[in-house]
Amino acid sequence: MALGFTLTPEGLAAMRNPDGDGTRAVRVATVGLTATAFAPGQPVPNEIKRVSTLAGGATAADTIHVTVTDATPGAMYSVRGYGFYLDDGTLLGSYGQADVIVEKSAASTMQLAVDIQFKALDTTQITFGDTTFHNPAATTDLLGVVELATSAEAKDGRDTQRAITARGLRDTLDDRLGASAPSPFVKPLLALANAAQFRDAIGPEFKAAPHQHPMADIIGLITALSAKLDARSRYVPGQIIVSAALSAPAGTLLCNGAAISRGDYADLFAAIGTRFGAGDGKTTFNVPAFGEGAVIKATVDPQKVGTYSAGSVLSHTHGATAAAVGDHSHTVSIVAAGGHAHGASSSGVGDHAHGAWTDGQGWHGHTGATNVAGGHTHTAANGASIITNAWGDVGYQGAGSPRLQSAGANTAAAGDHQHGLSIDGNGTHGHNIGMNGAGGHAHEIYIAAVGDHNHSASAGGAGGHVHTITVSAAGDGANLAAGWHLFHFIAY
C-alpha cells in the first residue's frame, strides 16, 4: 500500500543539491518505530527501537518500495508510525496514523513493506542500507513481490498488477470457451496455419459463407475499439452535432456564441475563423450562436456559411367573403326630445318699400248712385236771377242785361229720389299702388311647440351587395419551425 510519507524541513534540505536546482543523493541507514500515533512529517515520538535491516528502491519516478525486517527474539510491539534516518542522523521524513500498521510478537519476525510516494523529488537518488533484502513491487521491468489474482479477477481480464495462477487460467478458459475446452476435435484445428487448411480439415460439410457477428459477441472488441477511438477522431473541427444529452459530448462546445481562445482551439479557429464573431479581435473568437428555436438552413454557397436570414413563407393570398343578404333596409330610430320649440329669426334688410300692382280688367265702366236725399227743393244762389222771357224760356242773365227782374224762387219739389251716375270707360288699365317704407327692420318668427314627439326616418335599401373585409397581419418577426428542442454543439 502507498502511505502518505512526509519529508521534514531538515530532510528536504539534506536532499537539495548545492545549487538548489535538483536532488542530492542520500542514504537511509535506519528506521525508527513507535507505537504512538502522530502527524506525518513530525519527529517520531516515544521510539521503540531503530531497525537497520532495511532495503528499498524506486519503482516509479515518484515512488519507492521499502522493506523493513526485525527478527529480534522475544521482542513484542505495535507499530503506528515510523521515521527514516539518514546515515548522518537527519530525520528524512515520517509517517504516523491512529490505527496499527503492523504488530511484532515474541516468536515472529516483523516485516514491513510499504510504497512511499514523493512529490517533486527524484526517488532514484534515495538508497537504503547495505543489505541484500529487497522485495519491491514487481513490474514488467523490475523483479519484486507480486499479488496473485483471484479467478474472478482473471476472468475479468483488466487487472494490470496481479499475476494469474494456473487455476485462474483454467477458470478463465472454461468461462470463455466452455468446460475442458478446447476439445480433442478442436485442438488440431487450432494448430493449423491458415484458413485454407482449416477449411480442408473440417471437410465439405462446413462450407465457407459470408456472415456477420454482432460486435457484442466478440469479447473485448468494443472495449478495444473504444480505447483507440477518441472524440477528435469521431468529429471534424467545425462539425455541428445535434444531441438530446444535457451536456456537451467530449471534443465539442455548445453553440451559444461564447468567445473562446484561438490558441486552445486552434483547429476550430482554422476551420471557421471569425465567421461567427471575432471575440476580442486578438486572442479569442466566437462559436456560433444558435438562437432559441432557430433551425439550420442548407446552402451550396460558401459565402452564405455563417450568415443568418430571417426566412420567408410561400407566396399566398387569403380569401374572405361576406354573405350577401339581398335588398334590405335598416331601421333607424330617433329618440323623443320632449316638448320644445325652435328659435328662429329673419335678418334685417334695411329701409325699403314693397312694389304692388292690380291686374288689368279689360275695357269696363263703373256704375253708381248718389245717396238718397229725400224730398227737397233747390234755392237759387244769392245774386242770381231767374229770367222769364217772352217765349216762356227761363234763362240766367247776369246784372246789366235789359229787363232784368230779380225775384226769389224755388225749384219744384221732385220728391224722394236718386240721381243716376254714369262714368265713361277708360279702356283696359291697371292702377299703381304705392307703399311707404317702414325703415330698417326685422320680422319675428315664432314656431309653436308641438309637445313630446318622434320624427320618423327610413334608410333606403342598398340592393344586394357584399362588404370588403381587410385581414390584419399577425405573427412574429421571424419564421420559426415547429419541432423538438435539442442542443447543437460544434466539434473542435
Give a quick precis of the structure.
The protein is of the alpha+beta class.
Shape: elongated
Report the major sheet: 6 strands, mixed
Report the structural category.
Answer: alpha+beta
Sequence stretches where pLDDT stays below 50 over 5 or more residues:
383-394, 403-407
Number of strands: 23
Distance from first to last alpha carbon: 41 Å
- What's the Cα radius of gyration? 73 Å
> In what range is the share of β-strand residues?
15-25%
The tally of helices reads 8
Q: What does the average pLDDT come to?
A: 77
Helical proportion? 10-25%
How would you describe the overall organization of this protein?
By secondary structure, the protein is of the alpha+beta class. Among the domains are: 2-128, no CATH class; 232-304, heat- and protease-stable fragment of the bacteriophage t4 short fibre, domain 3. The protein contains eight helices and 23 strands. The strands form eight sheets. Strands 2, 3, 4, 8, 9 and 12 form a six-stranded mixed sheet that branches. The protein has a four-stranded mixed sheet with strand order 1-11-6-5, with no helix packed on it. The longest helix has 12 residues, at 166-177. The two termini are 41 Å apart. The model is unreliable at 383-394 and 403-407 (pLDDT under 50).
